[in-house]
Amino acid sequence: MREGYDIKLGEFKEYLKKLEYLNNSVAVLYWDMRVGIPKKAIPYRGEMLGYLSGEAYKLQTSDTMKEFIDYFSGIEELDDVTKSMVESARKNYEQTKKIPEDKYKEYTILASNGEAAWEEAKEKSDFEIFKPYLEKLVAFNKEFIGYWGFKENKYDTLLDFYEPGITVKELDKVFGELRDAIVTLLNKIKNSDVKPNVEPFKKNFSKEDQEAFSKHVLNIMGYDFEAGRLDESTHPFTINFGNKDVRITTHYYDNDFRSALFSCIHEGGHAIYEQNIPDELIGTMLGTGVSMGIHESQSRFYENIIGRSIEFWKYFYPEVQKRFSQFEGIPLTEFYRGINVVEPSLIRTEADELTYSLHIIIRYEIEKALINGEIKVEDLPHIWNEKYKEYLGVEPGNDAEGVLQDMHWSDGSFGYFPSYALGNLYGAQFLNKMVKDMPDLYKDIENGNLNNIREWLKENIHKHGSVYKPAKLIKDVTGEELNAKYFIAYLNDKYSKIYNL
Amino acid sequence: MREGYDIKLGEFKEYLKKLEYLNNSVAVLYWDMRVGIPKKAIPYRGEMLGYLSGEAYKLQTSDTMKEFIDYFSGIEELDDVTKSMVESARKNYEQTKKIPEDKYKEYTILASNGEAAWEEAKEKSDFEIFKPYLEKLVAFNKEFIGYWGFKENKYDTLLDFYEPGITVKELDKVFGELRDAIVTLLNKIKNSDVKPNVEPFKKNFSKEDQEAFSKHVLNIMGYDFEAGRLDESTHPFTINFGNKDVRITTHYYDNDFRSALFSCIHEGGHAIYEQNIPDELIGTMLGTGVSMGIHESQSRFYENIIGRSIEFWKYFYPEVQKRFSQFEGIPLTEFYRGINVVEPSLIRTEADELTYSLHIIIRYEIEKALINGEIKVEDLPHIWNEKYKEYLGVEPGNDAEGVLQDMHWSDGSFGYFPSYALGNLYGAQFLNKMVKDMPDLYKDIENGNLNNIREWLKENIHKHGSVYKPAKLIKDVTGEELNAKYFIAYLNDKYSKIYNL
């Protein structure tokens, strides 16, 4: 029995390794398409990607895969890694296998057309163009939930793809508390006399100088350039092919000092997570970050909690002043306020640390209601604008800067958005524990020593890859379940000081 | 019958398309490894490449492939494209299938170890380290020829992999004539009073300036940057993923103006060939250059016949002088002589246009004798040095700059070298016809109009992809079989003028 098991496990691992080679090949082709591809090559690259993804899909849904899943499901007392491998394989298998094949094909085409329709709609700022596609995408997702099944709330099933185990019940609680706290804080800030000066950041900064400084910061953070590289692309992203090739991109604006810098710190957080995955997990499908939410907790932790802290800039600001004459005569406190300015705005991707979560909560509330049939697609522009007015006090002038701004719904990625805000909550919970474990944390940051932070994250989070679900991870690390109180306390404390509340 | 045929052909094409997707994916991963990969990622990338190549190999040697080959082999009167598709598929199939599987595996491992041994041997300049591997590689190739069969000369079978249809009989004739002609010309040049001045080329040139000028030249040549890109790598190369993504690389030396420039023109010649392949051939396995020799004819044509002509520099030299103050006061004739200096040397890759072919002929003579059992591996260093002394008048001081300089034998690529010299012969034959078709050819070049040349090459050569074998192609285009007289005449004419002979 033991011998048979070992052989089977070896075969299973070999099989998953192949699947990972394929997925990573897809990722290389994709990276190249975003970073370096010549214009005319895009259609053929699409064909290549389609073929390789199709092959990966075949491996994921093959009879062989089914046999592995069935075999290991019949065995009790699997070790954590094997158990998680089987569960992840099963999830991938069932995600498509439970859907009738013709339905799934129809949906794939719809999702692809939906993207094109969304693009046109956004360009023309006309929701009507996108509406019929969105209606069908929502209908399909509701139908699929019928095949997949659900326990308490239909939307839970979709959430589970991005944040395994999270539920509407939990999110309603933490997002509700967070929303109320932010709205209250935001109103106080609006009445504050403090008006941060952001003009210095809008002067002219050369790409080369920005790149050099971003690399300097990434080095100190502990991003390993021998296992990664920094490139330019339209939108910043992190992508990895195993743990030894974790690449990040950014986009430089010559009239904006903050954009590329903080996107590099953000993507650097994602990348350090992937670089710290242990070699043993590579090839098991568990050798990557466990969920979107935990991933965002790492990127936002570095970007906001560390990267927008006063201690961080006590160390880096002298270097900024040395490299950029644009900040001559600007004291550190003014710089610090400038990178933490709160400005309720219409566009999620341009939002500040405080208001960002509100953008997400609005999308969460809408998605949840859509999937549960409580609102209709045709009412979205109106509902969207109402919520922006209520929570953020701003109102979109048109669909493009309102309901059409994000591409996520265009290919049916419902359930994805909440991860962004979850990242903030997880991050603050981790911070609370980290400070207890390392009382000198902020002194370290002030001295430009970010190694202890990286090690703590590695030991507590990164080294587990995808072995444990987010809920177990957060409990194991912090001793508490997911909650909003630490992030709310962090926000209140930080912004009260900045805005003299 | 016709309907059954059409369905089968459609299936065959679908099958080949998949194989091409895989091969092109391998190529993207390979390009990235040479141009952009982080250091620590190399081993895993090797695994990914191994997996994808293995999948491509499976498709090439599958029973399905065998069925296609058998089916179409039974049909007379196939159109040229289909016939060529079947032939190329059969060749790939038989190349490995005729070898017993365990032999082939053994050989693959040997080839891989051979590379490592060669690297060490070259580093230590000690042929003894590489000798046992080379002996086995030669023995395997001789054994394989037994499985593959041969008609007149055993070495023909190896040649056929790189230059389909070429034979020892033909090569002995053309290479013999070429060797004698070059040696005679070389001796005259040695006695000439003309001593080109190469000092200006060795001043300091910034990478940025070199790159900008190379791009300028490539643009005028007609290399399409919307279907390609120029990058840096240790050794220059061209690689393509279809006809819309044809990438070239170069290597910049700050103390050498000629190296990057002429390597760009050379690789540009390869790349224009691939960019000009018609869309209809993509996905058929015929949508690429037909042979190594024809490919080299394109690159060498651009690099030497065009790129080192006086007319080319009548157009470009003013631009050089504008961009590079290093050439201040240097007249065009001096520049022209400098880029055409003849210097017999030890290293093939650094050879000038005239002596380059001698380096190749030496390798050809050695390979031919090795495969036919006329010489032994252990005698190679001695034979090598003797031939260099005889043909080029130079003698290697050690194995590294002698018999160990090229990596080609380390993985068993016997039969590859001749293509380099064949390219010179083909190119001059094409030139002869081109001048007849376009009497204003050199006037065009002088005016910086290189479009007619590109169009002529496209119409006569590029548009056929791999449909016709080299021998048919050269006959169809020039009306003559492969011969050495045009290249010899070209060399005599050119160097007599330069060296006042």
UniProtKB/TrEMBL annotation, chains A, B:
It is an enzyme of class 3 (hydrolase). The keyword Hydrolase applies. SUPFAM superfamilies: Metalloproteases ('zincins'), catalytic domain. One of its GO terms (molecular function) is carboxypeptidase activity. CDD domains: M32_Taq (cd06460). It catalyses: Release of a C-terminal amino acid with broad specificity, except for -Pro. Its EC number is 3.4.17.19. Pfam families: Peptidase_M32. Gene3D superfamilies: 1.10.1370.30. Keywords: Carboxypeptidase, Hydrolase, Metal-binding, Metalloprotease, Protease. PANTHER family: CARBOXYPEPTIDASE 1 (PTHR34217:SF1), METAL-DEPENDENT CARBOXYPEPTIDASE (PTHR34217). Broad specificity carboxypetidase that releases amino acids sequentially from the C-terminus, including neutral, aromatic, polar and basic residues. Belongs to the peptidase M32 family. This is Metal-dependent carboxypeptidase. It comes from Clostridium omnivorum. The lineage of its organism: Bacteria, Bacillati, Bacillota, Clostridia, Eubacteriales.
